[in-house]
Amino acid sequence: MAVMLAMEVSIPVRGPERAIRLPAGVLDLTDEELFEFCQANRDLRIERSAKGDIIVMSPAGGYSGYRGMEVTAQLRNWAVGNRTGVVFDSSTGFRLPNGAMRSPDAAWVERSRLDKLTRREKEQFIPLCPDFVIEVASPSVDIATLREKMREYVECGLRLGWLILPGSTQVEVYTQDRVETLNSPATISADPVLAGFTLELPSIWNPPF
User: Long-range contacts for 70-74 (Cβ within 8 Å, ≥24 apart)?
Assistant: First the structure.
């Protein structure tokens, strides 16, 4: 196993923003081995389901990359002034209570929760579910799979989540109580979970290039 983890693997992910799923057992990795595997394949985005399936995703296309950057930038700009939590981008892995490892497009975690972790826990996959996540659908993504991920976040303790669907200009809002769909919103507020944070959506619906 150590030899394999020290090497980059060649996985045939064809076309933009494609993903393949390796069933549980094909790569039966411990948390430590999965972290090393991801470090050895930084050009890919890798997740693990609660069942142990490894999901390997290709780099994002232009529009998806821009949208992911934009939501993360807006969230970080708010967090710099708020200072109650920390923002993470899509390269960060979170080890959820159900055993899954997920990398949302943007995430926010309350600082008091991070303060309870050791330095080593912070250096590897963060062993908790974020308080807030944003997932942005890409053109080729399976929306049902994204919705399943959002429900998984909620079951693992997520307080608020947004699934942004650029193709239909909709935002699905996930909380512990319900799922609400917003049609073509220009803005969306994260109050009261993230007090004062409002996401501006015009550039998400219509990227400036």
Answer: 70/203, 70/204, 71/105, 71/106, 71/134, 71/136, 71/164, 71/199, 71/204, 72/105, 72/106, 72/134, 74/199, 74/200
